[in-house]
Amino acid sequence: MTLLVRKSQPASYVPANEGNDEWTTRRVTKAVSIEYDYDIVLKLPPTTEDNLLNAKLNRILDTIHKSRKILDLENDWDDDGSPGYKQSTWKRATDFLLKNTSTLSKKCSICADAPRVLPGPDGSIDLHWQVNKHDLLINIPADENQLATYYGDNNEGCIVKGTLDTSASNQWLMMWLTE
Predict the structure, then answer these.
(1) I need a labelling partner for 67 at 20 to 30 A (CA). Which of 41, 74, 115, 175 fits?
(2) Pick from 143, 149, 154, 152: which is nearest to 179 by CA?
């Protein structure tokens, strides 16, 4: 895996396509910590022969990093009065994604594909997967006291829907995506 390393802080890494003049490329072959704006840290496993699994985890990290742009949307970003997005909502969404995909990867050696991270209604954030025959939408509300909602369909009559606590273990939902 190739990461970019901040020249002034050699322990800071970002995916190779996110750099600028203050970054230099470094090939990584051992476990490293990746930190995005000092909010999310993930210890990647050492490079192994299971390159597909590592590639999927790296795409999820890249998706999380790119999704920070949602925080740049200010109030009325859609000219329809929609509120901007809070860092706490984004963090709940990305923590949920990271925790559940990395745990599933460690326990079962499988990993769901990266979702699209989208602006949802009323300051909520949507995680949306369209993988093979599966379609799954998880909505993380802006209100931290509200449960997330989810709806999934495998286009063969199997529908999953309900609410979930984003701080709890929900690998089963990621597993459903990989069936």
Answers:
(1) 175
(2) 154
Report H helices in 5-119: 51-67, 87-108
Q: For the chain, which ranges sit under pLDDT 50?
A: 1-49
CB 41, CB 52: distance < 8 Å = no
Record the tokens describing residue 63, joined without a space: 């998706």
Say how far apart CA 175 and CA 107 lie, in whole Å: 11
The residues spanned by each domain of the chain are 50-178
Q: Do 127 and 93 form a contact (C-beta atoms < 8 A)? A: yes
Q: How many Å apart are CA 126 and CA 94, to the nearest integer? A: 10
Write out pLDDT tens, residues 35-63: 444 344 444 444 444 566 667 777 888 88
Q: Which structure tokens are listed for 47?
A: 């490079």
Contact assessment for residue 35 and residue 41, using Cβ atoms and an 8 Å cutoff: yes
Nearest 5°: CA angle at 40, between 19 and 134? 90
